[in-house]
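Design a sequence for this backbone.
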């Protein structure tokens, strides 16, 4: 079972906010390891989590390490710890619990680009 790591330098836990953040529709590959292993497609994204389409068997409260293949990023974006908050056949939602500042910046940059007026 994946355990929540101590907070090493450069990784900050994301504060839990009860208000739901708007998620934007996206479509890019993700792989994950931890309590479940597999691949999938990120279908929507917010600064604090995402929805993943995958055939992997996941359950609520599993902890995963995500590797997001965000378009136009030279390397994968690593989410150090993500918790599965809900799961249905073919889809599951995760909350980002810990990620490095660079990963947070890449996610926020993508969201800003997608939400900017055309």
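Sequence:
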């Amino acid at each position: 079972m994946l355990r929540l790591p101590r907070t090493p330098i450069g990784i900050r836990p994301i504060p839990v906010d009860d208000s739901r953040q708007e998620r934007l529709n996206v479509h890019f590959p993700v792989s994950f390891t931890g309590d479940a292993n597999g691949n999938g497609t990120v279908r929507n994204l917010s600064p604090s989590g995402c929805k993943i389409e995958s055939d992997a068997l996941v359950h609520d409260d599993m902890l995963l390490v995500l590797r997001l293949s965000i378009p136009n990023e030279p390397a994968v974006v690593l989410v150090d710890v993500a918790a599965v908050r809900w799961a249905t056949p073919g889809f599951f939602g995760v909350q980002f619990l810990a990620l490095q500042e660079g990963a947070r910046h890449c996610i926020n940059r993508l969201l800003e680009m997608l939400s900017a007026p055309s």
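Strands lie at 11-13, 24-34, 38-46, 49-53, 63-68, 77-88, 91-100.
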